[in-house]
Amino acid sequence: MTFSVNTNVGAMIALQNLSKTQADLMTTQNRVNTGLKVATAKDNGAIWAIAQNQRATSTSLNSVIDSLNRGQSTVDVALSAGSSVSDLLLQMKEKALASSDVTLDANSRTALNDEFKSLRDQISKVVTNAVFNGGNMIKSGGTTIQALANADATSVITVATQDLSLGGAALTTNIGASASIGTVTTATAMIAFVNTAIANVSSALSKLGTGSKSLASHMTFIHKLQDTVNAGIGNLVDADLAKESANLQALQTKQQLGIQALSIANQSSSILLGLFR
Question: Is the pTM of the predicted complex or chain greater than 0.85?
Fold first, then answer.
């Protein structure tokens, strides 16, 4: 066996092993602390890049969800207001039918006409106030909803506006701002006009309802998609903490043994002193 005070090979080897153990221990501790096996590009550049791209997709889906929520809320407000318009039309039909009675006295006819016009004007108030986030889907020239459907903004879900204003597409010009039932003739004609308006409003509400359902259905899908993307990211970068915990204990034991081995190797040079006694 060769002894040298200049080169302690045993200590060098022990130090190299201890340094390697220290580096592995630091890596394991970082994984335990962060919960990630790939926390930075330094850990695994390819996996980190893939995970970052998927994180961008997941974050973008938050904007899609926000857009769908706004769109659905706007449609739901329009549906609520449209239902009120339909209810008002039913009441208007009732007044028109009552006013078409030829035996009705003048005072009663006037009272019915006043109620009819009040209901008519209420439709305008309902339509005007059916606003959410600045959008009104049931006024003349109303807002058409175009909600984001994907993370790249290359697809949208469209819900068309439905004009429920007085004299508009659904109520027609026969039920405009001047509609009345002041005479038997106008009352009789108004019954047919209101019936048509009721059917038109029902059709418009059906379209709005279908649009709201489409938005809700797509939002459910986007939530599931986002969950799947996040799970995929986890599969790529999350650490197995049970495995890392066991590895941490093993490395700590190995570290202690390495320190002892280095200490023993450093003491070997002291053997030379015995040769000169």
Answer: no
